[in-house]
Amino acid sequence: MTTEQLIENVSANKVFAGWHKQYRHQSHALNCAMQFAIYLPPQVSNGEKVPVLYWLSGLTCTDENFMQKAGAFRIAAELGIAIVAPDTSPRGENVADDDNYDLGQGAGFYVNATQAPWNRHFQMYDYVVNELPAIVEASFPVTNKRAISGHSMGGHGALTIAMLNPERYCSMSAFSPICNPINAPWGKKAFTAYLGKDQSTWKKHDASELMRQATRFVPAKVDQGAADDFLTEQLKPETLEAAAIVNNYPLELVLHDGYDHSYYFIASMIEEHLRFHAAYLQK
């Protein structure tokens, strides 16, 4: 049985001469059924293979938030870039969960959990880095040129995944990312649950730590709203900027007056991010 036969199409909508589609499949990495969305630009209808931008969303989100709210399709269609948006965690009746929004289902943090009960399903790092791209590249007319981006928890995921796998990604970007999770309440809570109390294991999933120590560079763009309610306590972009300065890392980080943590901010800046990625995906 081929990979194409293992994914089930659940929706299809034509948009800007391309197609937004949702698919369901059984994930081996996550040990449950998963859903992802893909935007295929109009170039694929002409027989072209296109590069892919992987988008990682934030806490409480699914594959739908970015695709419906970000306004990315017009520029993706112009540039000839596919966009893939996975869910933010494993889901299902038999999947471990928590009563709070910042742990469990909808809050996978893009790491491989090592602690029970989370380790049975919460292997989001393996899913995003290996399983999902293998499915996408076997099932759709795309190349193996990849970029990665995300928002908040997903911004954390995009930056850390790209820096841990610089050979796999042409570029990385983030909106309002959790830049220093080992020193932020969201990160401390999730990492303690998923990775255990040994904080030495946390650092490989901290963008500021990785950027400070990197020896291979992935071009990076980060935008942050100055009116973001989570800016000081949770996001800490100043730690990422300091790490980039120390290591001479190619990071473009901009603080924008008046913008908050919402998708209004993402919609305002998404064209710049897509054009940033296109410059590297099309080299």
> Which class do the helix and strand fractions yield?
alpha/beta
Give the number of helices.
10
Helix fraction, binned, reads: 25-40%
Strand sequence of the main sheet, in spatial order?
1-2-3-5-4-6-7-8-9
Range of strand content: 15-25%
State mean pLDDT (0 to 100 scale). 97
Q: What is the string of SSEs from the N terminus onward? A: HEEEEHHEHEHEHHEHHEH
Q: What summary fits the major beta sheet?
A: 9 strands, mixed
Low-confidence stretches: none
Query: What is the end-to-end distance?
Result: 35 Å
- What's the overall geometry? globular
What gyration radius follows from the Cα positions, in whole Å?
18 Å
- Number of β-strand runs: 9
Summarize the entry for a quick read.
This protein is α/β, with parallel strands linked by helices.
Any overview of this molecule?
By secondary structure, the chain is an alpha/beta fold. Helix content is 35%, strand content 24%. The chain is built from ten helices and nine strands. The chain has helices at residues 3-6, 64-69, 73-79, 124-139, 153-164, 185-195, 207-213, 231-235, 237-247, 263-281; strands spanning 7-15, 18-27, 32-40, 50-56, 82-86, 142-151, 171-175, 220-225, 251-256. A nine-stranded mixed sheet has the order 1-2-3-5-4-6-7-8-9, sandwiched between helices. Strand 2 (18-27) and strand 3 form a beta hairpin. The longest helix has 19 residues, at 263-281.
